[in-house]
Amino acid sequence: MPGRTDSSAATDSTDTPPPDRDPRTAEAACPTGTAPAASTVRLPADETRRGPARLLPARTPYRRQLRRIGAGAVLEIGCGDGDTLAGCAPGSVGIDHDPQSVARCRARGLTAYTPDAFLAGPHARPCAFDALLTAHVLEHLDDEQVEGLLRAYVRYVRPGGGVLLITPQEAGHRAGPAPVRFTDFALLRAFAESAGLRVRRTYSAPLPRPAGMLLRSNVFVLVGQVPR
Predict the structure, then answer these.
(1) May I ask the CATH architecture of the domain 60-225?
(2) Measuring CA to CA, which residue among 163, 144, 143 is closest to residue 153?
(3) Which of 135, 200, 183, 146 is nearest to 1 (CA)?
(4) Interval 61-105: pLDDT, tens
(5) Which of 61, 76, 181, 199 is deepest in the core (most CB within 10 A)?
(6) Cα(211)–Cα(205) distance, rounded to whole angstroms?
């Protein structure tokens, strides 16, 4: 289990060998018939940005990050109103525990579900997606919830598929709605490895790591891969 204390490590790492287990066969850390909850609906509107932050979009759609894990259908956990989902490939699906967010996604012509509706729906098939994305979600969950969420949903990504884990840096962390703890490169790596993923790379985006002290949109990014 990842440690519960904050970590300030911020390195761009090379590939890490995957643990000796297959996340697609792991038990989900949630009761039968339910799914872990996640949402970006609590993120505040970024209307008070100053300085260099004004030059960047209020909500980064992460299209550049998605290109790093290849084209294909994405399963987005915590899709909010679908800003990122709207830029994903056909066949992509969003999951959010807030029914109003799901309704807004569907009003935009996107495919989205609440967690339990996803499990009961036609898209909940093992290895059905090419990639998994979760952005601005993990910092709001404790260790057991993060592990349960990743193990529950990684099984729906094909072997060799990509995984993107994105969390805010200092300025975004301070601005967020009561995050559980600062989730940096070290914790992202620990969570990915605990879920049986291969860590391909970690990096800071859209600007180098020091910008995270002032820029709310600067994030930690982990690029992982489901073992083949």
Answers:
(1) 3-Layer(aba) Sandwich (3.40)
(2) 163
(3) 146
(4) 688 888 888 779 999 999 999 999 999 999 999 999 999 999 999
(5) 76
(6) 9
